[in-house]
């Protein structure tokens, strides 16, 4: 039975899961809900996600939600099965560092980028104080990332789940703030590597089709 | 070489790591950070935590930060020698635990942190408490706890058996009970109350909070 992902191909959280599926070469079907209201209905809350969120993944009868947990599940179960891509290394120390960088993404990077996405793209208020402050914060965060990436192609040396998690958010605001990313040489090269990965290009195709 | 933990024993993320060390029966040295400027130096940023945060764990030559990453690392490395299972082997069970860990990060922690910032940290700094923020955060956490109350029906722990996901939730919840006026949000929900009492009564928790 094919893996089923309930989500919107244009949502950053769903794109995180789609990228992971593509990186590991896992076949799947994307089933978008009717609209955003559908995921707040009682039936969805009772049977899919009690907080009314997407994505939700079904692997046969097994159901799991929360994009980063879903990706960890996919890696645990399918890494190495369809191709040789390693998203979480086997060595306990390297895996620990990938995990550390995943938390950098969760706490220092994603909240800031999410605010910019919400204000510029969803609410269409790019001049709001929140958006302006978030851009300043992002500038500082990218300064830290530029140092982290010194002498490295990816956050932990080799490509990992941590790098994958960062890209979907970046994709949505890169073109309107290219200077912020590009003025940092290591960040610029890193982002370029991520956007040119086959799995990301396949994910984007999905987003643009639906 | 013993494990070294750089942190502040009363800080929530440091507590998360100490709970895990105690559950796994691991000995460690706590290098207490008492002044914030020491974790913002160029050396600390370059070698310990790029964003100038604690805790940081040093295990021999290996350095790792971010409390939840540290805890997962400790479990991966040392659980096989311990008497406890914090992350089981079964993929399906592990993944649900990861899902609950994500719930903690995304839905449980943020509104509780807003309350703590107002009622504990602002108070400590002699700044006024913004009651509107506390009210909004409380409404938010009440909805979240209604979901937890359902998840915990007929269960002592989130995934049935005790796991790292339960441990991650405890420091913030406990701090709300001991240091704010909002502890009733847990007490008025019998399953949530039972869950927290189960945790509070574990030996590792009693040891952690006695220190």
From TrEMBL, chain A:
Cited Gene3D superfamilies: 1.20.1050.10, Glutaredoxin
Q: Does the keyword Nuclease apply?
A: no
Entry keyword Transferase: yes
All copies of the GST N-terminal domain together span: 1-82
The catalytic activity, as recorded, is: RX + glutathione = an S-substituted glutathione + a halide anion + H(+)
Q: Please give the superkingdom of this protein's source.
A: Eukaryota
* Source lineage: Eukaryota, Fungi, Fungi incertae sedis, Mucoromycota, Glomeromycotina
- Enzyme Commission no: 2.5.1.18
Q: Which InterPro entries match?
A: Glutathione-S-Trfase_C-like, Glutathione-S-Trfase_C_sf, Glutathione_S-Trfase, Glutathione_S-Trfase_N, GST_C, Thioredoxin-like_sf
SUPFAM superfamilies (UniProt xref): GST C-terminal domain-like (SSF47616), Thioredoxin-like (SSF52833)
Q: What is this protein identified as?
A: glutathione transferase
- Give every GST C-terminal domain span: 91-210
Q: Read off the Pfam families from this record.
A: GST_C, GST_N_3
PROSITE patterns for this protein: GST_CTER, GST_NTER
Q: Which UniProt keywords apply?
A: Transferase
UniProtKB/TrEMBL annotation, chain B:
Domain GST C-terminal per the UniProt entry, residue ranges? 90-211
Q: Establish whether keyword Transferase is in the entry.
A: yes
Per the record, the GO terms for biological process are: glutathione metabolic process; response to toxic substance
EC assignment: the record states: 2.5.1.18
Swiss-Prot/TrEMBL keywords:
Transferase
Q: In what residue span(s) does the GST N-terminal domain sit?
A: 1-82
Look up the record and report any one GO term of the cellular component aspect.
cytoplasm
Q: Which reaction does it catalyse?
A: RX + glutathione = an S-substituted glutathione + a halide anion + H(+)
Protein's UniProt keywords contain Iron:
no
GO molecular-function terms, A-Z: glutathione binding; glutathione transferase activity
* Top-level class of the enzyme under EC nomenclature: transferase
Q: Which residues cross the membrane?
A: none
The family line of this record is: Belongs to the GST superfamily. Phi family.
Protein name, per record? glutathione transferase
| Naturally occurring in which organism (per UniProt) | Gigaspora margarita
């Amino acid at each position: 039975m094919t893996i089923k992902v309930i989500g919107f191909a244009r949502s950053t959280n769903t794109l995180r899961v789609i990228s992971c599926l593509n990186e590991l070469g896992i076949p799947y079907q994307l089933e978008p809900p009717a609209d955003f209201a559908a995921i707040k209905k009682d039936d969805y809350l009772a049977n899919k996600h009690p907080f009314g969120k997407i994505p939700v993944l079904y692997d046969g009868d097994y159901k799991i939600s929360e994009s980063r947990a879903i990706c960890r599940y996919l890696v645990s179960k399918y890494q190495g099965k369809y191709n040789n891509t390693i998203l979480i290394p086997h060595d306990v120390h390297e895996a620990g560092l990938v995990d550390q960088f995943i938390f950098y993404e969760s706490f220092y990077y994603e909240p800031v980028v999410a605010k910019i996405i919400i204000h510029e793209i969803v609410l269409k208020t790019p001049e709001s104080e929140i958006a302006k402050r978030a851009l300043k914060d992002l500038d500082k965060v990218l300064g830290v990332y530029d140092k982290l990436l010194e002498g490295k192609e990816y956050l932990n040396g080799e490509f990992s789940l941590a790098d994958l998690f960062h890209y979907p958010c970046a994709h949505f605001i890169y073109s309107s703030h290219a200077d912020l990313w590009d003025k940092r040489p290591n960040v610029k090269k890193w982002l370029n590597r991520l956007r040119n990965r086959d799995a990301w290009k396949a994910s984007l195709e999905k987003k643009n089709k639906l | 070489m013993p494990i070294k933990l750089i942190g502040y024993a009363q800080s929530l993320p440091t507590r998360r790591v100490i709970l895990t060390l105690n559950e796994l029966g691991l000995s460690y040295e706590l290098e207490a950070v008492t002044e914030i400027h020491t974790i913002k130096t160029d050396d600390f940023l370059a070698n310990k935590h790029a964003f100038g945060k604690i805790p940081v764990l040093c295990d021999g030559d290996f350095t790792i930060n971010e409390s939840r990453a540290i805890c997962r690392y400790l479990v991966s490395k040392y659980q096989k020698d311990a008497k406890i299972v914090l992350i089981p082997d079964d993929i399906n069970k592990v993944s649900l635990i990861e899902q609950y860990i994500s719930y903690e990060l995304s839905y449980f922690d943020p509104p509780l942190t807003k309350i703590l910032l107002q009622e504990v940290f602002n108070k400590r700094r002699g700044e006024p408490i913004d009651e509107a923020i506390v009210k909004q955060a409380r409404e938010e956490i009440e909805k979240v706890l209604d979901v937890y109350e359902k998840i915990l029906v007929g269960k002592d722990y989130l995934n049935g058996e005790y796991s790292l996901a339960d441990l991650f939730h405890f420091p913030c919840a406990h701090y709300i009970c001991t240091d704010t006026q909002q502890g009733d949000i847990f007490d008025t929900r019998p399953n949530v109350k039972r869950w927290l009492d189960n945790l509070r009564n574990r030996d590792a928790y009693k040891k952690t909070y006695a220190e």
